[in-house]
Automatic annotation (TrEMBL):
Pfam families cross-referenced by the UniProt entry: Sulfatase (PF00884)
UniProt xrefs under Gene3D superfamilies: Alkaline Phosphatase, subunit A (3.40.720.10)
Domain of life: Eukaryota
Name the UniProt record assigns to this protein: N-sulphoglucosamine sulphohydrolase
Domain Sulfatase N-terminal: 7-176
Any one GO molecular function term: N-sulfoglucosamine sulfohydrolase activity
Family the entry assigns: Belongs to the sulfatase family.
Cofactor(s) needed: Ca(2+)
UniProt lineage: Eukaryota, Metazoa, Ecdysozoa, Arthropoda, Hexapoda
GO BP: any one term: glycosaminoglycan catabolic process
Keywords: Hydrolase
Length: 263
């Protein structure tokens, strides 16, 4: 169980004065209907307490009516697609409750007031034009940051342009570790032009928007058989996607291909 593993880690961390880093990954809300169809398209029935589904003690399932869910703009308005989205929303609620358990463990270990918490995802929504694409639905990921710094803003949404590339320099900044010198890196360009950079300053003050604001993205293969290299740059006004091998057929991920939405 994730919460027990987190508890075990924090107990070890409390035996030393050294700073620690904990990465917790959840399967939710990934698809799993292509490998475990008995649990539903997103394994939304797994652990629900239904006959044959097992039970997750800390999870109270939330269900959504397929004809009432709000659809993202890029998903077709059909009953199969709506049922697909409703199933994912159920697993999102399971994820939400799982994150709450992790936060509770951090609090119980006495680290609620000295831990920087970053919540995000690894890719966009697994629907058409989403994951494995560099269209906006494929790049949009949640980013919630909670800082114990008393100077940090609370309960505010930011318009700062950041990407997951910024997490590493942010963590180095948090630990007061200097970023590598250019001559020490394999790719000197990685540290040029302040990109990526720490977003800790954003937690204290909203940056002034600039025409030079930009984030970068890349996609090469989601699976070893899904090679289709793409690169993208997004500014506040424009976006450019460069398909490096545009003449080849675009590969569709297996779990998306067999999904109710795609079929």
């Amino acid at each position: 169980h994730v919460k027990l593993l987190v508890r075990q880690f924090l107990r070890r961390a409390n035996t030393t004065s050294q700073p620690w880093f904990l990465y917790v990954g959840f399967h939710d809300p990934h698809r799993c209907g292509h490998t475990q169809p008995q649990y539903g398209a997103f394994c939304e029935r797994f652990g629900s307490g239904e006959p044959g589904m097992g039970s997750i003690p800390d999870w109270q399932p939330w269900y959504y009516q397929w004809d009432e869910v709000q659809l993202p703009y890029h998903i077709q308005d059909t009953e199969p697609a709506r049922r697909d989205v409703a199933a994912q929303y159920t697993t999102m609620s399971r994820l939400d409750q799982g994150v709450a358990l992790v936060l509770k463990e951090i609090e119980m270990a006495g680290h609620a007031d000295d831990t920087l918490i970053i919540y995000t995802s690894d890719n966009g929504i697994p629907f058409p034009s989403g994951r494995t694409n560099l269209y906006d639905p494929g790049m949009r990921e949640p980013l919630i940051v909670v800082s114990p710094d008393p100077k940090a803003r609370r309960n505010e949404a930011s318009g700062a342009m950041v990407s997951l590339l910024d997490i590493m320099p942010t963590m180095l900044d948090w630990y007061n570790v200097s970023t590598p010198d250019k001559e020490m890196t394999n790719d000197i360009r990685f540290w040029d032009n302040d990109n990526p950079k720490s977003f800790l300053p954003v937690l204290e003050k909203e940056p002034t928007p600039s025409a030079d604001d930009a984030v970068f993205a890349s996609q090469t293969h989601h699976e070893v058989t899904m090679y289709f290299p793409m690169r993208a740059v997004r500014t506040r006004k424009y976006k450019l996607i460069h398909n490096l091998n545009y003449g080849m057929p675009f590969p569709v991920d297996q779990d998306l291909y067999v999904s109710p939405t795609f079929q």
